[in-house]
């Protein structure tokens, strides 16, 4: 039986005015003013019968010291729940942003929260520069919408990327559609970007196989592995989908015959941007603790769960086993800019150097 796909059209109008001599103040400013523009809009969509709704964002006030934020409420007026799984931009629209695309950052996430602050329960789907969106399409693990949910769209110019060429651009209209389907539609029918961990023999192999923009789906369970490395990736997502228990990546040091790297982190994210990782537990366990490499090496060494070196990554994980309670600078190192980290649902703010 042929499955019915439902497409919900969202139209965001982004007005990029031609910047004149007054815009030169962008480049003489040495500090951000912190002024933000916050607007709220409501978008009712009859998912069941395919009605369309539209929303607008006006970026006329866009500047390096301003965050433009738009919230659009998506209301399911149909009789059955559905799932949202992607955002497709109209062909050529992103190219129409011209030279701004390598300085303009989009942070897009779904939320049930009415506050302005990002919290652990929010669902990020994109966090990076516009010019990194692959084939005008963002795919994310499906979000079930029964009654309503809010999509938050944040736009900000990166001050470190701003150059003289960004003083002028033509007006642009940014249009995109949110893709939705029936609940029983298999992932493989929605997009080829979905990768299932169960199809691989090990976690590292699955991570290595991810192309930019892919989504690795991790089912419920414990997955024993060695230390993990995510290297030189962009806009990949690793999402746990456990209903009863959070899926866990666990490293077990069994005995002294295994040589350990005492300075190596369990999960290391190197030279990456736009990584989204959520609902995953990181666990470290010692068997025969008195014989373990770390115990024999001049006393117990600090367990180091997480290292991130990159920009615009959003990671939401839980610490288990020996890692539990170690969400502190002695065990976590976060380098780079604009990373959003939640440990055990608490926002982690690395110390400022």
How widely separated are the two ends? 59 Å
Q: Name the CATH architecture of the largest domain.
A: Sandwich
Cα-based radius of gyration, to the nearest Å: 22 Å
CATH topology-level fold name of the largest domain: Jelly Rolls
Domain module count: 2
TL;DR?
It contains four helices and 22 strands. The chain is mostly beta strands and 353 residues long. It has two domains: 5-187, Jelly Rolls (Sandwich); 194-348, no CATH class.
Spell out the blueprint of helices and strands.
Blueprint: E1 5-12, H1 25-28, E2 36-45, E3 67-76, E4 82-89, E5 104-111, E6 123-129, E7 137-145, E8 148-157, E9 174-182, H2 187-190, E10 194-196, H3 203-208, E11 215-218, E12 222-224, E13 228-231, E14 237-240, E15 248-253, E16 267-273, E17 276-286, H4 293-296, E18 306-311, E19 314-321, E20 332-335, E21 340-343, E22 346-348
Parallel strand pairs: 2-3, 10-11, 11-14, 12-15, 13-16, 14-17, 15-17, 16-18, 17-19, 18-20, 19-21
Antiparallel strand pairs: 1-9, 3-8, 4-7, 4-9, 5-6, 5-8, 21-22
